[in-house]
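Q: Given only this backbone (190 positions), what sequence would you predict?
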């Protein structure tokens, strides 16, 4: 929101009402670089947009890392996974044990409920008929803990990774199950 501010304390770096770069619709999707106190004036250096340097680092949760991994473009819900979605990551690999010594292909879920930060999917303007074209992705950047970064590095060297899109409702239900089972401890009074 905009609020009155003493003229003698105004700075050119502040977002001010009526200025073209202070249009609220243009600020949607930006991320703050650091915590902001209620009532504190916002400066241009406090916000970073999706096209700006440092956006990904600002969008990461505390202690989290971003890693980009190649995924199977045909089995990873092409055209339907976008930044902010939650996915499971599956590993398909060959293991010994098939008949006549032939290897078996097996798939297992190696990560559950991870947040997608970016895909290399691009929406090009339009085709000859004016329809929006979506080009499928072959890489996905996800937000994970440092330990899981290592797990993904090993998994992608062993086999092929695929994504499974999760329902928005799954995140809440999974947290509630974890709290009920005692896997997640809730602070007293929360």
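A: Predicted residues:
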């Amino acid at each position: 929101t905009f609020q009155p501010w003493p003229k003698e304390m105004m700075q050119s770096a502040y977002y001010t009402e009526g200025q073209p770069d202070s249009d609220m619709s243009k600020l949607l999707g930006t991320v703050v670089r650091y915590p902001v106190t209620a009532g504190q004036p916002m400066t241009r250096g406090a916000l970073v947009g999706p096209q700006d340097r440092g956006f990904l680092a600002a969008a990461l949760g505390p202690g989290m890392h971003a890693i980009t991994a190649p995924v199977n473009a045909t089995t990873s819900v092409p055209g339907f996974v976008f930044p902010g979605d939650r996915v499971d990551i599956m590993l398909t690999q060959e293991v010994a044990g098939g008949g006549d010594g032939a290897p078996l292909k097996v798939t297992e879920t190696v990560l559950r409920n991870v947040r997608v930060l970016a895909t290399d999917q691009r929406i090009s303007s339009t085709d000859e008929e004016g329809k929006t074209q979506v080009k499928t992705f072959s890489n996905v950047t996800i937000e994970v803990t440092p330990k899981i970064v290592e797990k993904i590095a090993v998994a992608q060297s062993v086999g092929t990774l695929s994504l499974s899109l999760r329902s928005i409702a799954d995140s809440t239900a999974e947290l509630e199950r974890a709290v009920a089972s005692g896997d997640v401890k809730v602070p007293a009074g929360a």
